[in-house]
Amino acid sequence: MTASVLSDARLVRALSDEFLSRRVDYKALESLHRGNVADWAAAASRFAALSDEEERQLVRRWEGNPRELLDILLARADEVTARRCRTAWVSLDRFAPFVRASSGP
Measured between alpha carbons, how far is 33 from 73 in angstroms, rounded to an integer? Predict the structure, then answer.
């Protein structure tokens, strides 16, 4: 995947607008925080005409660092929405070890 794909302003704008067009809620952030990024990678793939391999690389990249995707999704958010989402994200970071422990074997 070319480095320009992720920095393409049109791609960021499209993903951010899509995210912000929905009602941003805690469950959506929680899902993203857990690394459920496939739908977003598919949307990016459609918009940027990525190959299947490039889309898989994007999924792996965002699964390993979902905060990167959050930053892209909030790129065009107003200050209040961005602050609210980032505060919720920090909360999820704090509780993630407990969630993983309770869902373990």
Answer: 13
Contact yes or no for 47/14 (Cβ under 8 A): yes
Q: How far apart are CA 3 and CA 20, in angstroms?
A: 24
* pTM for the predicted model, two decimal places: 0.79
d(CA 23, CA 9): 23
Q: Could you report how far apart the first and last alpha carbons of the chain are, in Å?
A: 36
- 105 residues of the chain, pLDDT tens digit each: 444 556 667 778 888 888 888 777 788 899 999 999 999 899 888 888 888 998 999 899 999 999 999 999 999 999 999 999 999 999 999 976 655 444 555
Sequential DSSP letters for 5-16: HHH-HHHHHHHH
